[in-house]
Structure formats: structure tokens, C-alpha cells
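fyi for ur records
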Amino acid sequence: TWTVKEGQYVARNTTTGQGYETLVEAVAAAEAGQEVKLLANVTLASSLNVNRNVVLELNGYNIESNTIKAIVISNAQLTVNDSENKGVISAPQATLYVAENAKLIVNGGTIEGASAIQGNGSLNGTEVTINGGKIDGKGEIAIYHPQNGVLNINGGTIVGSAGVEMRAGTLNMTEGTVEATGTFATRKHDS
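which gave:
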């Protein structure tokens, strides 16, 4: 049985069928391993915290945030899918912020913003896997990886001034495209 309040729900838990008026409510109510599917475009007023294993199905819709760290993943796994191949998650910076012991899997959709996927040098034990979709740094670094963790690139397109800035951890790349659009320059490393 699906609970539907047409025109007011922005997300639905596909396991339980429950609809939600905010994405924050939908993610907070999801149990480990459940999928939250967007039903409309969403604007986040503050960071969305993911602290349990959740699948986010963009379903062709967009998540927009004017805050840094639009979605924060901590001690959990977030999987981003987009069955319609046109959904976008955007923020000015650190669109998807990978905190301590976080896992992120991107299978589809577009993640955009300066350091669209970003970690923190003091928050370790992360694993980021890009299987598809597009990571767009919007003229800045697309993926900033300063932490002791693993970055797996198995597909997708990564575009930014430096594409991937790897300062620590392990990078495994089997497929996919990384496009660095910045001007080449040599400089003394600052870390």
C-alpha cells in the first residue's frame, strides 16, 4: 500500500511506500539499506546528514543547496542512483562531504560544485566509488581527497580544474574519464 498526498510529497521510501514532505524527513526515517526516491526537485536549507546506509534515487530530479557540505555522510554508506540520467545534486562547495568511516557510491546523476566530492584530512577510513554519472567541479577541483581512504573510479566522467586532487590515501582507476581543465602551472606543494 502506497501512501500518497499528490503534489506535496518530495520523496518516497520505496521499501515502505511512505511519502515525505521533505528529503530530510525521508532520510531520517529510512532504515539501513532502504531507498529514498525523489518525486520532485528539492532545495536544502541546511546540510542533510546521512548516518545510516541509504540509497538515494534521484529519479531525474535535482537537489540544490546554497550551503557548503550539502550532504554529509558519516559512519554510513550513501549510494546515489539516477534511473532517469538527468538528476543533479549541486552546492557551492563540498556537495557530497565524506566524513569519518563514510562510504559513498555514485552510480548515476551529476554531482556539481567546487570540490563536488570532498573529504577531510583528519577524518579517515573513507571509501568513495564512482561507477557512473558525472562529477563536475564547475571550474574548480571535482574530487578533493586529502584523507586516508580509498577512491575507486570504475566509470563516469570527472571534470574540474584539477579533476582529482589526491593528497592522501589510495586511488584505484579501472575505467571512466578524468578531465582537468585548469591551466598547467608548477608550484611548491603546500601539503
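The first helix runs from residue 23 to 29. thats all i got for now
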